[in-house]
Amino acid sequence: QVQLVESGGGLVQPGGSLKLSCEVPGSNLDNFHVGWFRQAPGKEREYVAIISRGGGTIYSTDVVKGRFSISRDTIQRTVDLQMDRLEVADTARYYCAASAGRAAVASSSAFDYWGQGTQVTVSS
């Protein structure tokens, strides 16, 4: 079982930035495709960004609009989601997920392991 732990959420004003991090305590995510998803109250979970084992990235253009960036920090052994120019519509619980599949797929059903999520609230 892979236990994912997210951190970095919080309250930020519109236009601000946050960096979310995902880790497996005591291990790393090198052998997984890793994705960030989010779910707002009353809405379905949607994918935000995915980074493959090889470092390739996929973004939800509708969500990200050039504002977010996913990356691997090999020193900290985390997968980070840098979020800039945050909007009220970005308010949601953000989840990290890991997939052991052959290819990175932009669908929550392709991911085997999930964290508990971290809350991001964008409000003035």
Give a concise summary.
With 124 residues, the protein is mainly beta. The chain is built from one helix and eleven strands, in the order E-E-E-E-E-E-H-E-E-E-E-E.
Structure write-up:
The structure is a single chain. With 124 residues, the chain is mainly beta. The chain is built from 1 helix and 11 strands, in the order E-E-E-E-E-E-H-E-E-E-E-E. It has one helix at residues 61-64; strands at 5-7, 10-12, 18-23, 33-39, 46-51, 57-59, 68-73, 78-83, 92-99, 113-114, 118-122. Strands 2, 4, 5, 6, 9, 10 and 11 form a 7-stranded mixed β-sheet that branches. The longest helix is centred in the middle third of the chain and has 4 residues, at 61-64. The protein is globular.
H/E series: EEEEEEHEEEEE
What general outline do the C-alpha atoms trace?
Answer: globular
Distance between the termini: 39 Å
Helix-and-strand structural type: mainly beta
Question: What does the oligomeric state look like here?
Answer: single chain
Fraction of residues in helix? under 10%
Give the strand content: 35-45%
Largest sheet: 7 strands, mixed
Give the count of helical stretches: 1
Describe the structure using short key phrases.
124 residues, mainly beta, seven-stranded mixed sheet, 11 strands, 3% helix, globular
Please render the helix and strand layout as text.
Elements: E1 5-7, E2 10-12, E3 18-23, E4 33-39, E5 46-51, E6 57-59, H1 61-64, E7 68-73, E8 78-83, E9 92-99, E10 113-114, E11 118-122
Parallel strand pairs: 2-11
Antiparallel strand pairs: 1-3, 3-8, 4-5, 4-9, 5-6, 7-8, 9-10, 9-11
